Predict the structure.
Amino acid sequence: MTYNAFHPPVRTLMGPGPSDVPPRILEALGRPTIGHLDPRFIDLMDQVKSLLQYVMQTENPLTMPVSAPGSAGMECCFVNLVEPGDKVIVCQNGVFGGRMKENVERCGGEAVMVQDAWGSPVDPQKLEDALKAHPDAGVVAFVHAETSTGAQSDAKTLVEIAHRHDCLTIVDAVTSLAGTPVKVDEWHIDAIYSGTQKCLSCVPGIAPVSFNERAQHKIGNRRHKPQSWFLDMNLVMGYWGQGARRAYHHTAPVNAMYALHEALLMVHEEGLENAWLRHRRNHEALKAGLEAMGLRFIVDRDHRLPQLNAVAIPDGVDDAAVRTRLLQEHHIEIGAGLGDLAGKVWRIGLMGYSSRIENITQCLAALDGVLADLGAPVNHGAALPAAEKVLAA
Amino acid sequence: MTYNAFHPPVRTLMGPGPSDVPPRILEALGRPTIGHLDPRFIDLMDQVKSLLQYVMQTENPLTMPVSAPGSAGMECCFVNLVEPGDKVIVCQNGVFGGRMKENVERCGGEAVMVQDAWGSPVDPQKLEDALKAHPDAGVVAFVHAETSTGAQSDAKTLVEIAHRHDCLTIVDAVTSLAGTPVKVDEWHIDAIYSGTQKCLSCVPGIAPVSFNERAQHKIGNRRHKPQSWFLDMNLVMGYWGQGARRAYHHTAPVNAMYALHEALLMVHEEGLENAWLRHRRNHEALKAGLEAMGLRFIVDRDHRLPQLNAVAIPDGVDDAAVRTRLLQEHHIEIGAGLGDLAGKVWRIGLMGYSSRIENITQCLAALDGVLADLGAPVNHGAALPAAEKVLAA
C-alpha cells in the first residue's frame, strides 16, 4: 500500500452527523496539546462542565463529557444504572431503541420492549400500560430524538409517567441537544447522554452525560460494580472533580476537549433559545422547498425534528445514485436510511453549524437538479422559490 | 462562571503522556471534518489499518484503532477474550496490572495474581509456577512496559510460556509501541492494545488494538455476548471492514483519525528501527545527565524503558514544589509517581516527538537549576556536560 498525506475534501455535511464543524472549532482543536493533569487543563474541565450544565439546562453536579462517542455515552448510562436481574422498559421507535435493548441485556437486565412505528413518536399510553403490566420495572429508557427516523418524542410526559411508577429514566438526546429544547431539570430526567457531532457541531468522539441525584444515589448503592471499568461513574466522578482531590482515571482526550469547549462557547454566545429558533426557522424553509419539489416527510408535522428531515425516496428513484451524485458533483452529504428504512428514506440534517441558509439553498438546488436529471417525478424549479418565500417572511 | 476562549500554554511534555504533539499532526487534526461513511474516509481507514500493522509488526487483519483512550483498549481486549468463569493469570508489577485485575473481575472472570516488585520486570519463573498451579487458566495478561515504573518485561518469553500452557495472551503495549520493539507476529502475541499519546506522539483518545487468528477464533466462538456493545469486536469488525460490506456501528472520531494517520505516517517515514534507536540514544544522554546530577534510577539497567525514566526523589526534596516550578517557570511537565510510588519518584518521558535533544538539555538544565535553588543534594552543574558527552559520542 502507498501511504500519503490525507487532505480531506471540503464537504457540506447535511446527513445525520457529523454536521459541519465551524472553522473556529477546528482551530481550537489544533491548539498545542498540554497534559491532562495540567492546572490549566483542570480549569478547562471546570468550564466544560459548567457550559454542559447550561446546554443541558441542569444543575446536576454529575454532568461531564465521556471520553468516547455517543454510543459509549449510551453504554455509560446503562452500565451504571442497570444491574443483573433489573427489569427495564425500553420504548423503541427506531434503530437506537434497539441498541438500548442490546445494552440492557448485556448488563444482565431484562428488557421489556414497547414498540411504536418507525417515524412515530413513543406513545405515552403504551408506556403507561407496560408499567402497569410490569410493576417490578426499575428503569424506563427511550430516545428523545430518533436519529434513524427524525421523530421527536414527548420526553417530559414520558418521564412523568415513569416517575409515577417509581422508575428511573434514561434519555437519549444525541440528536436533540442544542437543536430542540432539552430541559433536564425541568423535565426531571434522571440520566441523559448526547453526542458532540450533531447540533453542537463539534468533531465526533465525545459523549456528554448527566445524572441527577436519584441516579447518583442508585450508582452509589449498587449491589455489584458496574461491568465496565472505563465507564464506571464512581471512578469517572473522581477524575472529573466530584471529590476534594482529582484522581487519575484515564488520559482525557485533551484536544477534543478544546474543541468541545469552543463548541459550547458558541452555543452560549448565541443563546440556547436562539439556537432552537434558528433550527426551527431553517427547517421551515427546507421543508417548504422539499415539499414544493414533491417530496413527502415520513414523520407527521407535530413530531418532526427540525434538525433531521426524513423524506421518502420517490418511487423508482435510485437511492445510492442520487446520494453519490450529490457527494461527488456537489460535495453535499445527505444521509441514507438506516435499519428498516434503508433504501426508503433520505435523512437531511440541518444540525448546528449546518443549519444555515446557504446550506438550505445549496442542498435544494443540487437535489432538484440531480432528481430532474435522473428523470424523477419532481416539480423541477419549484423548491428554491418556495424556500426563499419562507426565508423572506 | 465567566467563560472565555481557551488558549493553552505551550508546554514541553516530558511526563508519562501525553507527549509533545508535532505541529504537522496538530495541523492534520484540524482539517475539515467529513462524514464517517464518506468513501474518502473509508480510504483513510484502510491506510490507518495498514500503517498500524506496520507499527505493530503484524499481518493480523483484525488490527484497528478503538475510538476511545488506552484504558478502553485494555477493556476491549478483556471483554472480548474473558467470559464469566474464566481463570486469568495477571502478572502485576505496577499500577496497570492492577487495572487488568479489575477488568478480569468485571468480566466475571477469576484473576490469579502473580506479583513482582514495582520497578522490576515480570519474573517468567513466577508465571511458569502459576500456570503449573492453575492448569485451568485460559488467558495470561501482562504489561509489556509499565508506565507507572518505567520497567520493561520480556514479552516474547512470557508469551512463549503462556502458549506452552495453552493460554491466550493479552499484552499492554501502551508505552512501548514505537518506542521499543513490539513484534506482534514474531512474538505470537494474541491480543495487544496501545495508546496514541505516548511514543506515537498523537493526541490522546484513541487505542490501537490487534488480535491474531487464535484470539479471533475465541471471539467468534464465545458462549456469551461480550458485556460491552461498544467494544464488541464482532460488531467493530463489521465497521472496520472485515466483511464484504461495512456496517454502521458508531460514528468514528473523524478528526482524531486524521491525526493518527499523520502520526503513523511519521513513524513510517522515520522507520521503526530508527525510532527505536533514537529513543535508546536519547535515553543514554538523559541518563548520563540525571546520574551525574546524583539521581538514581529505580529500575535496573537491563529492564529500563528508554522512553520513561523513573528516578527516586532525593530525601528531603519536596516533590510537588519541584514539579510546580518546572511547570510554571520552565513550562516543562514531568510526571509524578503513581500508586505505591506517589511522592517517591519522578517519571521523565522521552516519548515520540518528546524524545529530542533540545528536550533533554532543557529538562536537565531546568531540573538542575530548581533542585540547586531548593538546596537539594545534587551535583550542581554536572548534568549538562555529562549529557553532551554522550550526545557527542
The first strand of chain A starts at residue 12 and ends at 14. Residues 271-392 of chain A form a domain with the Aspartate Aminotransferase, domain 1 fold (CATH 3.90.1150.10).
